[in-house]
Design brief:
1 helix, Methylamine Dehydrogenase, Chain H, 5-stranded antiparallel sheet, mainly beta
Length: about 600
């Protein structure tokens, strides 16, 4: 475990007046909770000699590369693409034997000459362009990708190095995603567009002509259709329960065939598979089908920490981003444990709530809550257990125990949509109820219990799902009456606020909440704001505030910029406690009752003891 001491200079002496005069804090790097060794190979090329190399892409919080495995030695070659920007990588092997990639912000097409070990920037076909999933290669060898946020189809011709922007496909400004295109044998590129609603565009690769081909009965649904290339050279798809064959001017409902099998990656007389958890690459003999395992020097990819949420039995629990893996840190032994994919969703864990019966986990996407009993062994059909998936919602930011013993979460809606939901879960039997659009066209970011009023204090945002266009001008806070199941009152503590953030109930019964770069103090009994002030930081780190006041003074801690700050309910003041460079990269944090801060910094779990 690596420890560093930092001494605070005079400019940093803005800590709470009640803090001790000792102005040194210890920041500890507790280690890396999750590293994935498994890797599916995507291409095989010749190396500089007579051997072969297997290739894939490599994505971490601070690094984007192509990674090549030498099949004679297991050695690793890295081709760094990080300088173009931290976005997804789409990669193909072209007929010329070289690798082509689309990555960066804005997206660049790149060529990597395997023999010469040279990387060439072929150019930027569209701006802005910062996110994509999937690609297609037409029978003419051209490489197609759909780029967010303009839902543009871009392509690269490996034969000439020419890159092109074929234009934005949808006319609706709420449509920003073009995902997983497919190319038919007659060179028509079929492009699924969403996620505000479903569209499917057919683009003629020769003329550039484009047409939306889904019938109106299918375009009303939220989400994105799925398409695939079958062995017969045609493209088929599905939208909900409807299946179809794609034509340049329409879809033919009812006709479908299975996706064409993935072509094997051949390296001489071997089929290249994937790297397993031990770092070994599977190689299958084409004739005998015998599998050999090549020990590689690939050490795996550390996963970014997305949330650090709670403590249970001396263990700190959190989750990672892409994929969503749950981990824990034992404060007594110092051991980090990768618990695997406990949540149904595979992208990220938003929150983990410690309940007497076990742990409840909220994850994205869609908005989902699962349950895990850490006192029992993991069994896929029993523990963890799925609780609820909320239809048309995607981000359950925070889980809270209500005054009625029920568990609540607010949500943001699905991409392109407005109107979040309030979700209630009975921890005794996992029954649930959902109220949608509680505050019209607004999402619910944070929820805090108000026991004396039998309700929940909720903070809303005019934002909707990713790419949604807000219709409201100002956000609200409101009290939800748990018994009557209705909004008891609503207010706007800081005029002009579009997004109310985290809110925490202090031990004096007052509510402390975030409003942009300000914070407010709300008295729920009097239903009025009693104090507002500017935060001592300009930008906040998720989840903005730790959920509970910390002993012994009931301080409410937050993280922003490169600092920890604390709000003191004794006088409503908010001041910097400590600064550290690692805090500028913090994501996901939690403060224990003994005032110890745990937080993610990239793939590392960090700790700082705040009590003096």
């Amino acid at each position: 475990m690596m420890t560093k001491r930092i001494a605070l200079g005079l400019l940093w002496l803005t800590t709470l007046s009640s803090l001790a005069t000792d102005t040194s804090f210890t920041f500890e790097d507790l280690g890396e909770p999750v590293r994935l060794r498994e890797l599916q190979m995507q291409a095989v090329t010749r190396d500089s000699g007579n051997g072969y190399m297997a290739w894939s892409d490599y994505e971490t919080s601070d690094k984007r590369t192509l990674v090549g495995i030498h099949l004679d030695s297991g050695d690793v070659t890295w081709v760094d693409l990080t300088r173009f920007g931290i976005t997804h990588i789409q990669m193909i092997q072209a007929d010329d034997g070289n690798l082509y990639a689309y990555t960066g912000s804005p997206g660049h097409f790149l060529k990597y000459d395997v023999a010469k070990r040279e990387l060439t920037d072929l150019g930027v076909p569209a701006k802005p362009a910062s996110y994509w999933l999937g690609n297609a290669v037409g029978p003419d060898g051209k490489f197609y990708v759909g780029a967010y946020p303009q839902a543009r189809l871009v392509r690269c011709d490996p034969r000439t190095g020419k890159v092109e922007n074929l234009g934005r496909l949808p006319g609706d400004p709420k449509q920003c995603y073009l995902l997983h295109p497919a190319a038919s044998a007659d060179n028509i590129i079929y492009c699924p567009v969403g996620l505000h609603h479903q569209e499917l565009w057919a683009v003629d690769s020769k003329t550039g002509a484009k047409k939306q081909i889904l019938p109106e009965s299918l375009t009303k649904a939220q989400g994105c259709p799925r398409v695939w290339l079958a062995a017969d050279g045609n493209v088929y798809g599905e939208s909900g329960s409807a299946k179809f064959r794609c034509h340049p001017d329409r879809v033919e409902l009812g006709e479908t065939k299975a996706p064409a099998p993935r072509k094997p990656l051949l390296a001489g007389d071997k089929i290249v598979g994937s790297i397993n958890a031990a770092g070994k690459l599977a190689l299958t003999n084409v004739k005998t089908r015998k599998v050999t395992l090549l020990q590689t020097r690939y050490e795996g990819a550390p996963r970014s920490i997305f949330s650090v949420s709670c403590e249970r039995d001396g263990k700190i629990y959190g989750g990672t981003f892409s994929p969503a893996i749950t981990f824990c840190y034992d404060t007594r032994s110092g051991k980090l444990t990768d618990l695997g994919a406990l949540a149904v969703n595979k992208v990220q864990i938003y929150d983990t709530l410690n309940h007497p019966s076990g742990l409840f986990l909220s994850s994205y996407m869609p908005a989902t809550v699962d349950f895990f009993d850490p006192t029992k062994s993991i069994k896929r059909q029993d523990n963890p257990r799925h609780v609820v998936t909320v239809k048309s919602q995607e981000r359950p930011v925070q889980l809270t125990l209500g005054p009625d013993g029920m568990i609540y979460s607010g949500t943001f809606p699905s991409k392109g949509r407005l109107g979040g939901a309030l979700v209630r879960i009975n921890p005794a039997d996992f029954s649930h109820k959902v109220w949608v659009n509680v505050i019209p066209n607004q999402s619910i970011f944070s929820v805090a219990a108000v026991p004396e009023l039998g309700g929940l204090f909720c903070a809303s945002s005019i934002q909707g799902g990713s790419s949604a266009i807000p219709t409201e001008k100002e956000a609200f806070v409101f009290l939800w009456d748990c018994q009557r199941e209705t909004v008891a009152f609503r207010a706007q503590p800081v005029a002009g606020t579009k997004n109310y953030g985290a809110v925490v109930r202090a031990r004096n019964g007052l509510l402390y909440g975030i409003a942009g770069t300000k914070y407010y103090v709300f008295d729920p009994a009097q239903r009025k704001v009693v104090f507002t002030s500017a935060l001592p930081v300009k930008s906040l780190r998720f989840p903005e505030l730790s959920d509970e006041p910390a002993d012994p003074r009931g301080l409410i801690y937050g993280v922003g910029d490169d600092a920890v700050f604390a709000i003191d309910p004794a006088d409503h003041s908010a001041k910097i406690v400590v600064r550290d460079k690692s805090l500028s990269h913090a994501f996901g944090f939690f403060v224990t009752q003994d005032e110890t801060l745990y937080y993610g910094c990239g793939s590392r779990l960090m700790r700082c003891r705040l009590r003096r």
